[in-house]
Design a protein that fits this description.
The structure holds two protein chains of two kinds.
Chain A: E1 4-7, E2 10-13, E3 19-25, E4 31-37, E5 43-51, E6 54-57, E7 64-70, E8 73-78, E9 87-94, E10 103-104, E11 108-112
Parallel strand pairs in A: 2-11
Antiparallel strand pairs in A: 1-3, 3-8, 4-5, 4-9, 5-6, 7-8, 9-10, 9-11
Chain B: E1 4-5, E2 10-14, E3 19-25, E4 30-38, E5 45-51, E6 56-59, E7 62-67, E8 72-77, E9 86-94, E10 102-103, E11 107-112
Parallel strand pairs in B: 2-11
Antiparallel strand pairs in B: 1-3, 3-8, 4-5, 4-9, 6-7, 7-8, 9-10, 9-11
The chains are: A mainly beta, B mainly beta.
Chain lengths: 113, 113
């Protein structure tokens, strides 16, 4: 089983719909992150959380919200989806100590028509 | 402005030869650098990292070199194998911990049998 699991893996939806992407992890890590990747670009940070009571905006948080329901679960919501939010979304986790790498899920491909 | 740059979108190398992937950065506050490998339809996989207090780190066939004065790092893969064919991302972070990674756009490596 994957250590970082994202659901759904693929989603097609319409403009204006509310969408939730879910991430769960079995690594026991406190830190969790949401990134998006657009074609030909690197990953950009949307939100991150260092524990259940901690939520922080990343580089591109506008139009998104997150919820950290438990140490193992971190969900990303698009309140009213728009076509330029079409992208590949990745969840990641890392241990809570200095210079620890982030470990990624396999991504959710989201298309907004 | 891109703070982490991978100027070669693609690289082709013969099996058994050395692959050298390059990365430049502009933010002098970056102190932890990582390389990730990504196969299609999978999330990025952590490969190797280096702290700014070192200039070299090795892990099997993979070696990362850091030249702080030039703000340049490189990943060497020796010998290259067909299974190394993937997109390689360089990433960097500031301060303690690996949160808020800044990614380059990636370099697609093709290892030709």
């Amino acid at each position: 089983d994957a250590d970082v699991t994202q659901t759904p893996r693929n989603r097609i939806t319409k403009t204006g719909k509310r969408i939730m992407l879910e991430c769960s992890q079995t690594k026991g890590h406190d830190r969790m992150y949401w990134y998006r990747q657009d074609p030909g670009l690197g990953l950009r940070l949307i939100y991150y959380s260092f524990d259940v009571k901690d939520i922080n905006k990343g580089e591109i948080s506008d139009g998104y919200s997150v919820s950290r329901q438990a140490q193992a679960k971190f969900s990303l919501s698009l309140e009213s989806a728009i076509p330029n939010q079409t992208a590949l979304y990745f969840c990641a986790t890392s241990a809570d100590s200095i210079n620890q790498p982030q470990h990624f899920g396999d991504g959710t491909r989201l298309s907004i028509l | 402005d891109q703070q982490v740059k991978q100027n070669s979108p693609s690289l082709s190398v013969q099996e058994g030869r050395i692959s050298i992937l390059n990365c430049d950065y502009t933010n002098s506050m970056f102190d932890y650098f990582l390389w990730y490998k990504k196969y299609p339809a999978e999330g990025p996989t952590f490969l190797i990292s280096i702290s700014s207090i070192k200039d070299k780190n090795e892990d099997g066939r993979f070696t990362v070199f850091l030249n702080k004065s030039a703000k340049h790092l490189s990943l060497h893969i020796v010998p290259s194998q067909p299974g190394d064919s993937a997109v390689y991302f360089c990433a960097a972070s500031t301060g303690a911990g690996s949160y808020q990674l800044t990614f380059g756009k990636g370099t697609k490596l093709s290892v030709i049998p």
